[in-house]
Amino acid sequence: MAVAAATAGDLAVAGDPVRPAIPSAADADRRAARLEVLLGDPYAPDNPHGLTALFEADARGRPPERTELLLERFGLSAECVPVADGGRLTRADLLARVLRPVFRRDVALGTAVGTAPVLAAGPVWAAGSTHRRAQTAALLLGGGRVGLVPHGHGQTAGTTPGGITARPAPGDGLLLGGRAEAAPDAIGARLYVVQARTGPARSPHSHTAVLLDGDRLPPLAVRETGRAAAPGRLRAPRAEIELHEHAVPHDAVLGPVGEGVPLALRTQQVGHALVPALLVAAADTALRSAVRAAGGGASPARPHRRLAGVFADILACDSFADVALRALSLLPAQAQVPAAAVHYLVPALLRENLEALACVLGARRHDRGSAHHGALGRLMRALPLAASGPARTGAAAGQAVIAPHLRPLAEHSWFAEPEPPLTLFRGGADLPVLDFASLAAAGRGDVLAASLCGSAARFAEVRGVGGHTAALAELVQSLVTELHALRARCRALPGPGDGPLPVAAVCALVDRYALVLAAAAVLGVWESQDGADPFLAAPAWPVLALSRIARRLGAPVPPLPDGVEELVHRELVRRCHEHLSYDLDATELAP
Q: Tens of pLDDT along 80-105?
């Protein structure tokens, strides 16, 4: 096979000692392109890393060992270790680019080898001592695994109510005891990031993060629960950890005692933005299957409205996720709310669009043995678990982060802040290296709302003149009107000490607010285009994307100008024929 020939040459390069990288988009693109070639044509039936082989591994309930070995030899683990600690991780948006080839083929595999190591080790990169960072980096670079034991997670029958608890040890360090369920992919881990309870249960300082050395644990401290995933879902079995007066040294504590929850809130921002960006890549494969099923070889003059709309939504999701990923490096003190909004909204939009694709594929979507048709059903089964992250918190986590910010943002930020720098939206622009320690647990300001207001001011001059740009101006004004309405409603929410927030009302506000932020990201990405990609520089895709967002809000939507859906569908078919991805990068894929 061609992929086998490519493997030998590329792995020789990938097997070289890991050298510190610079935060270069071009460098990440080269590694992503090399990985795409190594994984080969996903639709080739004889490709050991293709969809057929991955489906068969699913049916057996086993990981795809040959593909895992290829990724290990490629050095994928180095992508999960910061460059300062000997790896290749420089920015979260560049990490997403390198991991996307894996997620296009298998969400479960991508989660196990890509996102899980980054998310589990985040507290170490943010608050670990030099020794603990080096220990964690060496483990990951050597192919080892870090497990995560979140606070209050998945307690089983007989589990201590507080999960793992900790108290001061005589002399120094902590004594850990109790039982808790670990996040998936913890089986076989040699290090564990444990959220141990050290204070009152309802206190904001109730937990402390501890790095637990698996090699020093007593026998049977970690065991499988026997609840493996069903075929087609995330494959990792569950693990349970039980400790009795287990001593850990002082330098195993990650950050100050009692600051485990704020530390988790800071570092989980990376996962909140990263995982949805990678699910966009998985949706790419499902859309490609639907395009082929609908007659991808037909003339582009016969647009399929449903497929064009899905494509526009995928571009909107990619815009939103990419902006949130870039904010982690560029504006770390303001990244929390955009990341939480991406975590909340993007999986929901993708799920909605997968259901639309199911209508195109019809009964063929149930064919798990077909590389061309089985990807959709497989993704629909895996998406809810993958989207919820290692702590399995789901969309509620995004709501919980956003809700307390609504009133302060409405009172102090919206319509008052300056626009963010253009580099927030421009994919090829250089950014600072991601610094986990600089991420804020309580983000300040709202850069996307400020960007929307700036866009509205620029579009005010072209409203009512006709054409695609004028339609875009009308949509922008509808979105600004929605933000004004949100400000009025959020100002009326109870303040601190005024009683609990009304749950149903707040959930509805979070939903509307996330849609407004997604629209602002679309506009920012479109306005930042330099013309290198004529389709992305043209207004057709943002018009279609924003009209769909506005309809979800119930906001006024002008009639679509003639040719909008046709232009988007034509690009959809072109990318299918030319083996280009359906995201903003239009990456060349394995044929």
A: 999 999 999 999 999 999 999 999 99
CB 241 within 8 A of CB 182: yes
CB 222 within 8 A of CB 214: yes
Residue 62 confidence (pLDDT): 83
Contacts of 246 (CB under 8 A, 6+ apart): 175, 176, 177, 212, 217, 218, 221
> Smallest Cα–Cα separation from 583: which of 311, 308, 275?
311
Phi-psi sector, 497: left (phi>0), alpha (psi -120 to 50), beta = left
Instruction: Please measure the distance between the N-terminal and C-terminal CA atoms of the chain and give it in whole angstroms.
Output: 13
Give me 443's structure tokens: 């983000």
Q: Indicate the SS3 state at residue 87.
A: coil
Q: For position 296, what pLDDT does the model report?
A: 52
Q: Which helix (H) or strand (E) holds 177?
A: strand 174-181
pLDDT > 80? residue 123: yes
H or E element: which one contains 138?
Answer: helix 130-141
CA-based nearest residue to 176, from 195, 158, 159: 195
Angle at 421 between CA 126 and CA 468, to 5 degrees: 125
